[in-house]
Every structure is written in C-alpha cells, then in structure tokens.
Amino acid sequence: MVAFTGNDPRTATLKNSNTVSGVGIILSKDGTNNKVQLGAATDVPLGVSVGESSRDADQVLETTGATVSFFPMGGVHMVAALAETYTTGQLVYLKGSGRVGGTAGSDKLVGVYVGTGETVGTAGDLIPVNTSQCATA
C-alpha cells in the first residue's frame, strides 16, 4: 500500500558502523557495495529514513549488517535539521550525520523548506522539506 508521499518505503543494508537513530535522517549510497550510509555534505541524497535502523536481540542498534527503511527522495518529507532559523522557500543542504542546514558551501541541495518559518532549537528536530529539487549529481 502506498502512503505519505506516494512512495512505498524501501529497505536497504547500512554500511558497517552506521546506525540510524530515527525518522528524518538523509541517507546516501555507499558507492562501492550496494549499501547506504548517513548522508554527508557532498553526498547525493538517496532517501529519508522512516525510523530507526535494525536492533539485535538485546535491542541495541546493530552496527554490522543493519537494515533501515527509507522513502526515496521526491515530494515533501519531514527531515532532521540543524539548530538554525528556517524561512519559507529557503534552500536546505545536506550536512553531516544525515541532517540538513541552510548554508550552501559545497554541500548538496536536499530541497526547499516549505514550513511557515521556524527556529529549530535542537539539532535533529524535523522540518518540512520539498525534496523534489534535490541534487542528483
């Protein structure tokens, strides 16, 4: 069944030593072994996590062979942001640990902030971003 942005969630294997702590984390491809990783500033965004990555029998986040579900880029997603002020229509860019921020530099475009304007006080809080314009190269 299709939900949210019209996309079904996908599941991928995380690069070893990567864990995803919740919803809204930007993922990118590892590039060499058909795995995904936490998005870094110069990575091309692949998708947005639906929740935490897999846990072991003791409920600890797995660091080897872990899986994560994600929505592919496209449409509006709630995305984890850095602690900054965001204004309607502002471009947001991929930063470290799969979060977005408002300063470009050489960082890859994730999309356009489509909220009513807000100050994110805690890094990791979610903001609405139209990811239809995300970088593809």
β content, as a range?
25-35%
Helical fraction equals under 10%
Which structural category do the helix and sheet elements fall into? mainly beta
Spatial separation of the terminal alpha carbons: 30 Å
Low-confidence stretches at least 5 residues in length (pLDDT < 50)? none
Strand order of the largest sheet: 1-5-4-2-3
> Biggest sheet, in brief?
5 strands, antiparallel
SS summary, helix count: 0
Characterization of this structure:
There is one protein chain. This protein has 137 residues and is mainly β. The chain has a domain of 58 residues. 0% of the residues lie in helices and 34% in strands. It is globular. The model has no long low-confidence stretch (mean pLDDT 92).
Topology:
Layout: E1 10-13, E2 26-29, E3 36-38, E4 45-49, E5 67-72, E6 76-80, E7 85-86, E8 91-94, E9 100-101, E10 109-113, E11 118-119, E12 126-130
Antiparallel strand pairs: 1-5, 2-3, 2-4, 4-5, 6-12, 7-11, 8-9, 8-10, 10-12
Defining key terms:
mainly beta; 137 residues; five-stranded antiparallel sheet
Summarize the structure.
The chain contains no helices and 12 strands. With 137 residues, it is mostly beta strands.
